[in-house]
Specification:
Blueprint lengths: L17 E2 L4 E3 L6 H12 L4 E5 L8 E7 L2 E7 L5 E5 L14 E3 L2 E3 L6 E3 L4 E3 L22 E5 L2 E5 L7 H5 L2 H9 L6 E12 L3 H10 L4 H4 L1 H7 L8 H4 L3 E5 L5 E5 L9 H6 L2 H8 L1 H4 L7 E4 L3 E4 L4 E7 L5 E10 L4 H15 L6 H14 L9 E3 L16 E4 L4 H14 L9 H8 L3
Antiparallel strand pairs: 1-2, 2-20, 3-12, 4-5, 4-7, 5-6, 8-9, 9-10, 11-12, 13-19, 14-15, 14-21, 15-16, 16-17, 17-18, 18-19
Length: 442
């Protein structure tokens, strides 16, 4: 079916909200409802968004429900073993056709009036079908499918934008950094332990920008957690506090930060002993093994983030300007023995699960920042994003533009991409005649 969205809503010019050259940000972007609605139209609807991991679909009928922005989405494996994604909305009255989180089914029946759809999105049953007009055709009323769906090494992404560049192009050089987590094992990766979900009072961008750029907070916010993890119990080791490293800034808004000291890792010792680091250096190269593979943080714009050290992958689902829902998985190498996979899962829960010793620190920070954003005076403050300004360069070692580990560089790149998308009419805002001619092409 052709999706012809509503006429364009009024949109604000956000140029004044972010000054890249001076590294200044207007914090109103975290609390303004109009800007949030504009984000759904111009940031989330046109972008490639993470859906799930391929390992969640092992046989025909397997499904998983998620969101793209605030749009509910149903991801299925059809009888042909092809994975598809649809708007999880019945074409009759708009009810969700699947209200379960995940499972296996032969069909999806709306619990309102009984319209039923198969795993390929086709409308296969309409109660009282004889009462519809003679020109009613079931083939015209299947579930609304995403415009594009693709995967990168097990990670499934989709977009509503038929004009979006291919996923590989959208990821760009970020794949070099992603492979430090996704390509350790020739057999690939899988997720274990289900999906953990929790709600935070905080704008989704606070989490996404931190995972893109913020190593700065680690030794302050997580000092007590690092004390617990230290063999001496006396606090962060000096090489962690002063560790050298790099921060990657991508033109598409992605970002990653990582130490470059080979002793900087503090992952689970069982997992650490599992790896043959000489083999990994042959496979991934010394720069990745002693860089983004050991520990660090990353965001794929706009709202998918990951932590290589414990295999945490997560999505920051927006739920209004002041709230987000966090969904987190544990990612492991397929060839890991079961005891190592379980060690990775437990380590992830202890550190970055909903009650993890690091995750609680982050959640409190974001919620506190959000709380002060609602004040009349405090909500209008200009925020400083100047750390590392003008220090980014091509270092000849790590692909793309990188700067010092302690920097706001990737955050500036994140908000530059955000600003550009917010100021650019999306495909669905084109004149309807142009939309039709584009969408009717074979």
């Amino acid at each position: 079916m052709s999706l012809l969205p509503r006429d364009p809503a009024p949109s604000a010019d956000v140029s004044e909200y972010f000054d890249l050259e001076r590294g200044l940000l207007d914090r109103e972007i975290f609390s303004d409802d109009g800007l949030y609605r504009q984000e759904l139209r111009r940031v989330f609807a046109p972008s490639w968004l993470f859906l799930a991991h391929e390992s969640q679909f092992r046989k025909p009928g397997d499904f998983f429900t998620t969101y793209m922005g605030e749009d509910p989405v149903l991801v299925t494996m059809g009888k042909d073993r092809r994975i598809r994604a649809f708007l999880n909305v019945c074409r009759h009255r708009g009810m969700r056709v699947c209200r379960a989180d995940a499972g296996s089914a032969k069909a999806f029946t709306c619990s309102y009036h009984g319209w039923a759809y198969d795993t390929s999105g086709n409308l296969v049953n309409v109660p009282n079908g004889d009462d519809y007009p003679s020109d009613f055709a079931s083939r015209d009323w299947g579930l609304a499918e995403v415009a594009q769906l693709d995967s990168y090494k097990g990670l499934l992404f989709a977009t509503w934008n038929p004009e979006a560049p291919p996923l590989a192009e959208a990821l760009g050089r970020m794949t070099w950094y992603m492979d430090a987590m996704l390509d350790r094992d020739p057999e690939g990766t899988e997720v274990v332990g289900g999906v953990h979900k929790w709600v935070l009072e905080g704008n989704w961008k606070l989490a996404a920008e931190q995972f893109a750029s913020d190593w700065y907070h680690v030794n302050i916010s997580h000092a007590s957690a690092l004390m617990v993890m230290s063999p001496t119990g006396k606090g962060p080791k000096q090489e962690i506090v002063q560790t050298p490293g790099r921060q990657y800034t991508d033109a598409n808004g992605h970002g990653a930060g990582f130490p470059t000291h080979p002793k900087s890792r503090f992952d689970d010792r069982i997992v650490h002993r599992h790896y043959d680091y000489d083999q990994l250096r042959e496979r991934l190269g010394k720069e990745r093994v002693e860089g983004p593979m050991t520990t660090g943080h990353a965001t794929v714009f706009p709202n998918f983030s990951y932590l290589p050290v414990n295999g945490s992958i997560r999505v920051w689902h927006p739920k209004g300007p002041g709230r987000m829902e966090v969904w987190a998985w544990t990612l492991v190498d397929k060839s890991m023995p079961d005891e190592v996979k379980n060690a990775q899962r437990l380590y992830n829960l202890r550190t970055f699960g909903p009650t993890g010793i690091f995750e609680q620190d982050d959640g409190e920070n974001w919620s506190e920042v959000q709380a002060t954003a609602h004040g009349f005076v405090s909500g209008g403050l200009t925020l400083n994003y100047q750390m590392g300004l003008g220090m980014e360069t091509e270092d000849g070692v790590h692909p793309g533009t990188t700067g010092r580990l302690y920097s706001d560089g990737a955050a500036r790149g994140f908000y530059t991409r955000w600003r550009d998308l917010m100021n650019t009419p999306a495909w669905h805002e084109k004149p309807r005649t142009e939309q039709r001619s584009t969408q009717e092409r074979p």
